[in-house]
Amino acid sequence: MRKTYIGWWIAAGVFFLMAMESVYQGNFNPYVDTTMQTGMYGLFAIILGFSGYSRYKAYKEYQHDREVRNQFYESNQNIAGNQTQFVKVTHYVVDEPEIQEAEAREVEAKEAERLPEPEKETVENKREGTVKREFSVAGVSRHQDVFRKAGYLNDEYSLSVKRLEEEGLLYDDIPKYNFGTVDLRLELDPDNEVDPNAVKVFLNDEHVGFIPAEDAEYVHDMMEADRIADMDGRIVGGPLKRYDEIEEKMEKVDLSFGIRIDLYVRKGR
Questions:
Q1: With DSSP H G I counted as helix, E B as strand and the rest as coil, what are the percentages for the chain, rounded to 5?
Q2: d(Cα 3, Cα 163) in Å, to the nearest integer?
Q3: Do 42 and 16 form a contact (C-beta atoms < 8 A)?
Q4: How far is Cα 94 from Cα 70, in angstroms, rounded to an integer?
């Protein structure tokens, strides 16, 4: 959010000086009645000053919210596993009425994430000597409701164009849903009638799709050989709002949710 309150205060100061000038003219020339003119200038100065103060308060609240939000980003670290991954997705926003509660949760999250230093090093070293393979998830279009249940409404989605501009978000894509930490895991599906190498993908213990058929045999073999050292996943897409510069208004874009998975595979024969 920009410091727009400074401009309002400058304008208020200009009108205040104009009011003082009007008073001076009235005193200097008793034949000219400047009472109404002085009152109008003074009223404008008060209104602009109060508006500047309101924007100053909003700016301070925004700075505080951003600080809390950044602390949440730091506390929600990805928890890696061979076949289970907790995914952190961006645009985590804290509602203004929930700031105090959010601060309390932030303290608890920091306590929960404290791991012994050797254990942290083990997680960081998991990907050493591995090969990164990236995959999409097929069949998610039939399970869009699972994504909506896993997410929560983004407060910025309901902001006006003016408010988005004030906060410097006007030209960003504003997603309708945000995601905290979610559980993403892979599971072999040997009873699959179409492909015995099929690999299911689960989001929060709900089936949302499969590793694509052309990649299924490879992932299946790597899982059976226990060569998957680590896994990352991210939720992509979803409905959003985007500013139309030609129409000068926000337009809704209805995209489907999807998942991208990064597997870190140990080298071997």
A1: 45, 25, 30
A2: 13
A3: yes
A4: 10
